[in-house]
## 1
Amino acid sequence: MNRRVAIIALLLSAALPARGQNADALPSHQTQTSTGGSAMVSLSKPVARVNGAVLTQGDLIREMYAIFPYARQHNGGFPSAMEADIRRGALKMIEFEELVYQEAKRRQMTVAPQRLVKAEKQLRARFPTEQEYRQYLQMEANGSTQVLRTKIARSLLIEDLLKAEVDDKSWVSMEEARAFYVKNPEQFKLAESYALQTITIMPPVQPTPKQPNPPPPTPEQLSQMRPRAEDALRQAKATKTFEEFGILAEKISEDDYRVMMGNHKAVDAKDLPPEVLQAAARLQQGQISDLVQAEGAYTIIRLNAHTPARTQSFNEVSTGLRAQLRQQKTEKLRRELDAKLRKNAKIEEL
């Protein structure tokens, strides 16, 4: 998982929770709750011990919401098919965060008082009213500002250690990115593509779930389809713009693309039927083809764009490439740090 563990994580765990029955709120640690289909459990119930430090059901559920925030839109429930995996991932994450925190303490890292004050003010500013803040303070810290400051300091220490061991070391220079670009040219080749709109006249027997590959239309059926196709062609040739062709496609086309104004956007040349590719290759941008008989249907093509195969320049890809490489390096460093910290740790999952 790639997310910064900072004071923002603490803010997200609350997300202005003090609005009565607001679904964003986690109940008090003395109350009962449920994670979707699972049984009612106490949020103070231990779920793991990391070198003796207890992690609770409340910590776990909060992390599960961070992994799958959409659960808040479904009365706090997680999809039954995903809940076990979400829980497993959340448990590993809170164990990792606790190991990082303990490592920061072992290194005698500290948080400057002024920084802690600033972070506390930022947290307080997230609540529109004093009452909402007090309700949050009661829920998260049993009403104690000192307990809350301890939680904030913990979050900042985790952030600091991750910055030193992951963020700062994951920087990717322009030279590194260029070396990767030169070494992996295939990754930066763009295939030839055609952006098309179509109007299609379909045969009487069309694919269905029960018959995904119906027999091709007979010559007699094609003959019966031809007048409709020619009338469609006449109307299509009269259109002058993308919008005009698209409106006509919505009215008379019989394929699924009619609901999108017949727009196929960019399609790799290799994925087009040979007859369609041959017709499209003869068109200039904005031109409309004659009738094309392909895959048992009559199709009319409007060419919106043709992009020849080419290799992207380094300047085109450098920003995205550096971000991609940094993401990969970040994930690798986090995995390595997790493995290193777990190596001599005593972790009990309860």
## 2
Amino acid sequence: MHFGQTLRVLRTTAGLSLRELARQITVSPAYLSQVETGKAPPPRPKRIQAIEASLGVPEGYLLSAAERLDLNVAALLHDVPPVADFLRTALEAGLKGDDFQDMITLLKGKGADGMRRAIRHEKHLDLDSEASTEIRHVSDYLVEERITILKGHRDKDALFGELASHVTQHVEGLKRETVLHELWAREKQASTGIGSGIAVPHATHAQLERTLLILVVLEKAVDYGAIDGEPVDICFLLLAPDSARREHLELLARVAQLCSHPSFTKGVRSANTPAEMLDFVKLCPSRIP
């Protein structure tokens, strides 16, 4: 997937029209459309940073997708966000070339398991509460009980009804009608069908105490009004507390990145049970090229 496709996924997931994003970063809609379709190269780094700010995604997400790095390194930066987070934090902390070389020597000498043990042995490393809630991977938010395979034919109304009912099973006191209202209110702003048979309906709500992620795979795709006109058969539902809007946007970005890989969608569609789907999602950092 080229830079423009990744940008389109994140833009539509964030609920911004092409024209509105172009206005915010002071470019023409025609130019931005050419970038998204791959007819124009990625913008310069400063403009990419402006796009990241407008979309509300973590700094470096799109920039890493645009850089011409070794393919394996670029894939690692793109698919495992903590790698970019580590490099950014290391630079902010003042680490130099020799410090990185020392870490390389440690890793080569002790191996991956040895380095993990060395890090975990340092009991004095006290992570603050904000760092402890850092999003590391989509699978951190999924459990088998929140993954469902829907059999039979449905339309979009019925799908949203199923999603709302599923949410009420996991959030005590939250009414099905409330969830439906929030989902449709968000849908009226722009379709959450992000293309390639994938939808990411999402909303925030004051009654929620924690972020909730649900994965639904449909046996028969539904007409969803997606941006590419294709029917949807993979649906991530994301609900977050009103107080967790940053977490909401970051998780949306990571879901969008995950879904942008054909190998991910192929794996999920070929799985036969929720347990198999969850196992595949957990393995994605190492399996997605």
## 3
Amino acid sequence: MDANSTSTAREAAPRRHAPRIPPLIVNTATAILGIAFFLYVGGNGYRQDLALLFIAYALLALGMYVPLALCGSLSLAYNAYFAIGAYTVAILANHSPALIWAAIPIAIVVSMAIAALLGYVTRRLSGFHLAVATLMFGIAVHTWLVHAGDTTGGATGIGGIPRLSLFGIEIGRAGLIGFGLAIIWLFATAIARLRTSVVGIVMRGQRETLVAAEACGVPTETVRVLALAAGAAIASVAGMLFALMNQFVLPDSFAVSVVFLVLFMPILGGMASPWGSVLGALIVVAFTLGFDFFQGPGSLTFGVLTLVVLLLAPSGLLGWLGDILKRIVPAGASR
């Protein structure tokens, strides 16, 4: 057999892809894992603290996933949207406890409007320049939180946030944890469906080949601004839950360092699915705070772990598991 026939046979052979798990199985499995996690946390105060941090990080990572993984837009202003959600609840609830429910849509609308405005102003920027511009905005918001004492409480923050109540029933920390886990599941499921929809394919096509997308008539600037606004809305929900669970807010909780920590979560878990962001958030919380052995060198351990994952599994842990399934499942089953 000559070289040409060998090449032709190789091209004609069916390519093996990682088997695609049906969405129903993924949704059911993740829901069961969420319930198991809720039961594991229970009423233990330490586990509840870790769960609260995980919920905030997971929502922030999902918010960053929308523009980053779908449109290729790297925004580093998520500490600002995180703070908008938290401080909107804190300020309005301290003004009047009756406004605590009204704070939720207000925070979402304000964060989306600011993200859309920032996205429109920086519409000509991409890559490093977009990251720097949004980073400066995040730094400016954090600086304002520290120095605007009359509005934000300054460096001491705002305390005394009342518990959320529904029909006269107060929702405690355990209830908020269950509510937060349900929100993570809803957002991750919705983003996964968006990713495989026509709109998601258009967004990913814009990320891969911007010129081709514009040639096909795709309003790329509008799509990018909408993705940034959607990500900001999810980040503001993280801030609201963070404030309601802790019943106080401090400017240090919304420093720019939070963004750099969250940035690695989708990379660790895998960019091919929004569930990779949730997995990445779980890994970060576990290896920096969850295990007693790692509590001393937690940040160092996280840095080493990130480097190992990037070297051994560039597509993230979910991508690595997909490669294992590809080797296990026969070629006919993967089709």
## 4
Amino acid sequence: MTPTIFLFARLIAVFFVLWAIGQHSHNYYVFLRWFIFLTAAWGAYRAYRDLRREWLFILMHLALAVLFNPILPFTFQKSTWTILNLISAWVLLISVSVLDPEPLEKFIGTTIGNAVRAVLAVGWGVGLILVGALLIYSAMDRILNGWWLWKNAQQTQAQIMTVVHRVEFVESETRAGYVHSYDVKYSFDLEGQHFSGTASLSDNPVTEDIDEEDEITPATPTYLDVQYQSNNPHNNRAIGEGSISAEVLPAFLALALGLWPTVAGVNILRKRLFKI
């Protein structure tokens, strides 16, 4: 892949990953995973070949390749993917200027260009710190919520408000087939206060048959066992949604990933602003 083709591939990848924030068919997300995975993998190779000491850029591309890998795809909530897509677009844009700087070199050589580079360097450092802080905050919030539910959860019944039937084709090296899931919205009352939550279940929790992508409200009151944090019932989950450990382990990975951009951002600002 020539530098010019790779340059356009990353710019197209930025468009695709931002476009993915909206609602699209499953095939679009399969295509997106392959495109970002291949682009990021090549970017990791380019960063290793051309920037052997800049491990930050190598790790950034490897992180993108792992995140969007189509073999063992990660599954997150839509809100989480929105944040990850924005971060991915930012990383790809930074990659353009770092791995293929030729179009910028003439401009950077001017007085205005030097000022712009200084501003961009500070912005890069601040951006790294914000990304790292966001990852750390989200990870710690998820870890603490999971710990509370594991140690001190109370149990009650919640009424199912709506159910949506999702069907996704999953393919790996060992199997391929359709996976059915049921996105549930539920609510419950405690001491005169109203609380709600969502869950993704593998079995249909209501008696009605639900066609693919249909959303229904149960004809008769239907209930779901949930557990909640006694001093913060907003932290709740449906029993049977999956093990808490399986939900918390990715949070530890996000916590680790959040540390290195934070440290890198602090070092950039320290060198640029304080000259130390």
